[in-house]
TrEMBL record:
Belongs to the dihydrofolate reductase family. PANTHER family: DIHYDROFOLATE REDUCTASE (PTHR48069). The keyword RNA-binding does not apply. GO terms for cellular component: mitochondrion. The lineage of its organism: Eukaryota, Fungi, Dikarya, Ascomycota, Saccharomycotina. Its EC number is 1.5.1.3. Pathway: Cofactor biosynthesis; tetrahydrofolate biosynthesis; 5,6,7,8-tetrahydrofolate from 7,8-dihydrofolate: step 1/1. It is an enzyme of class 1 (oxidoreductase). One of its GO terms (biological process) is dihydrofolate metabolic process. This is Dihydrofolate reductase. Gene3D superfamilies: Dihydrofolate Reductase, subunit A.
Amino acid sequence: MTKVSLIVAALVPKYGIGYKGQLPWALKEEMRYFRRVTTQTADKNKKNAVVMGRKTWESIPERFRPLKGRVNVVLTRDLSAFSSKYSEEVAKHGNNVKVADSLKSALQTLDMDNIEEVFVIGGAELYNEVLRTTPELVDRLLLTEVSTEKELEMDAFINVGTLWKKDDPQVWKSYLASKGLENEFSQDNREADFQFSYHIYSRC
């Protein structure tokens, strides 16, 4: 069965992930981690899929859409409005862009024989909806814990709740090794005014 992961960077301890629709940081190494983890597969004949809300899709500059090397699935409650607005762009990219109205229907639109892992990549509304309504579909949270001494305003949070617990660091290392990425990333990092560390949370 295809694994579904949520991947997100959040400011601990409250798990803030954004302010006014923007990331409150620009961490180059964390962005590289996101790109490599969501793109790399153990089976070279398969691809990964990234599932995002409409606002996240629209926040990606058009020249970078869809995210390369991955099947992109956009979730929207209004399929017809999205299709009419982006029909040419979606058609241009063939099977690399799909549109659905829920995570369950997104999984049904994917050719699971050719997909290794599915990543939910945001935004906050989608993360929280998935965790609240269909937690059974999610295998793990790939959570980058960010900390800083700066005062940061946040208006978007991920509700991790009590269903999830942080795994031993070895679980994260084994996961990276399964993708051949074990030598590319350190668990603990610092950039500018931020410290950040990579973790896997699994269901309690």
